[in-house]
Fold:
Amino acid sequence: MISNAIKDKYMQRCIELAKQGMGNTTPNPMVGAVIVYENKIIGEGYHQKCGEAHAEVNAINAVKDKELLKKSTLYVNLEPCSHFGKTPPCANLIARLKIPEVIIGTKDTASHVSGKGIEILKNAGCKVTTGVLEKESRELNKRFFTFHERKRPYIILKWAETLDGYIDVLRSENDPVAPTWITNEFSKMLVHKWRAEEQAILIGTNTAKADNPTLTTRNWPGKNPLRVVIDRDIKLSSHLNAFNKEAETIVVADKSKKTDSVKYLNKNVGIDFVDYNLQHFDKQLVEIFVKNNIQSIIIEGGAKILNYFITNDLWDEARVFIGNKKFIKGVPAPEINGKVVKEEVLGNSKLLFVNNETIFSQ
Structure:
């Protein structure tokens, strides 16, 4: 019998391997797999990119002596898939190779799997154990689970505020178009890293107009996120950076403005329309996210858009920079109720990670 400590040890290795796929596997989850024979790893692998081999396949391929598979234990942080997608089902492969024992971090709750992989393994005579480092395994794929269980993306709020609690200076129409820097270059680089890890990034009309951000990962290697710009009345200039060809953009506008949408006719810019007269703009916005298969999104707008998500309790975590500056007066930073789970120092700035306790307690 394998001890709990040994199970935890190899499952932790699965999680470490899986993290290497961050930003490259979506819409698939991050998965790592380890094959152990006589308490020694003989093969390991992770899902490197959507459309390519899954973790279990890479781990199996890494085993030199395939005869040992019939005497080994396979560890994987997520239930092996049971459906034909871009690759064949991993559960069938494991069963065919007669791997006698599989230890799983957590079940896959997506409707197309949801226990079917485990059923295939058990029917083949495989001993299956689930729930090893389950909390950690679910945390790793929180974006994937949120999308499939809550039918919306994992939502991250991000802003920077001054020591005296302001997110921006007071601006007039004649002020130059430029962002108000509160933190430092370390923070900027980190934000670009975050963008590479998430599928989309959203800003409102005022931020697009006042800051003219590009919303790309230019200071970090990785794929640019899909840009979502709220432009209710289609009044933003199509020459703004958010509409350039460096990344794809979706504009969210009022359906009454469909005749004006021709200004955004561009290969990399699409438009989704909503009814702003309805009370549930948040639900319409979520429908757009889901339609575009967005599993995670950073809300990087100004105070108005951030407060909208906070007021509607439509967020999972917030990442708040506190810079070493004071504005004395300006636009107040959002106020948020949540649990500070981590605090970091970046040069002369501080970074708080805040979880939505309402969401995380469910």
In short: The chain has eleven helices and 16 strands. The CA atoms of residues 146 and 334 lie 24 Å apart.
